[in-house]
Write a structure and sequence with these properties.
Layout: H1 5-13, H2 20-23, E1 31-32, E2 38-42, H3 47-52, H4 59-70, E3 79-82, H5 96-113, E4 117-121, H6 123-129, H7 136-139, E5 144-146, E6 149-154, H8 157-162, H9 167-186
Parallel strand pairs: 2-3, 2-4, 4-6
Antiparallel strand pairs: 1-3, 5-6
The chain binds uracil.
């Protein structure tokens, strides 16, 4: 049975399926256009996201927002979510059992949004959504098709803040995303 958007959002908001619910301030379900053609998936909320209940609103978020603007879009036009919806304490990586508990929500979001492109920000998103042992360094900018959806690994914005030399590669990835969206638009598919 298909779950509705309201049901998924409610389930996420009340979730107590893993230990992260004990330490969260707010759940961060995701935000943006529920009919977006382009979706971004990060790792999990950080301190500011946990405080506000919104994804990518801290320093990484500022950078992600400017990259979205650089390809001619607004945050409100895309959908932004994370592998885990609650903050891992101290911003550690989510544990595998936490990610597995939370992934059905992300899968339900993708099934309802039906984006054309899902951009995977960093190793954690790439690992849980594409496969284990993926190297973002080697595989960023590649397209992977699954059930009619195009997935692209790219750098997590926090990696770009740590190592600004990677920004050039990240920009090449974002240009590919922009061009793919343009191609669909020009072909009359109305993205
Ligand atoms: N980092 C993430 O992976 N997700 C956020 O929402 C914020 C920072």
């Amino acid at each position: 049975m298909r779950t509705s958007w309201a049901e998924v959002t409610e389930q996420i908001s009340d979730c107590r399926k893993c230990r992260l619910c004990e330490t969260r301030t707010n759940v961060v379900p995701g935000e943006g256009n529920p009919a977006a053609k382009l979706m971004f998936v990060g790792e999990g909320p950080g301190q500011e996201e946990d405080r506000q209940g919104r994804p990518f609103v801290g320093r990484s978020g500022e950078l992600l927002t400017s990259m979205i603007h650089a390809i001619g879009l607004e945050r409100s036009e895309v959908y932004i979510a994370n592998v885990v919806k609650c903050r891992p304490p101290g911003n550690r990586n989510p544990e595998p059992d936490e990610a597995e508990a939370c992934l059905p929500y992300l899968r339900a979001q993708v099934a309802l949004i039906r984006p054309r492109i899902v951009v995977l920000l960093g190793k954690v998103a790439c690992t849980y959504i594409l496969r284990e042992n993926i190297s973002v360094m080697r595989e960023h900018g590649n397209w992977y098709e699954r059930k009619g959806v195009l997935f692209m690994p790219t750098f997590h914005p926090s990696a770009l803040l740590r190592d600004p030399a990677k920004k050039r590669d990240a920009w090449e990835d974002f240009k590919k995303i922009r061009d793919m969206l343009r191609q669909w638009k020009d072909s009359g598919e109305g993205v």
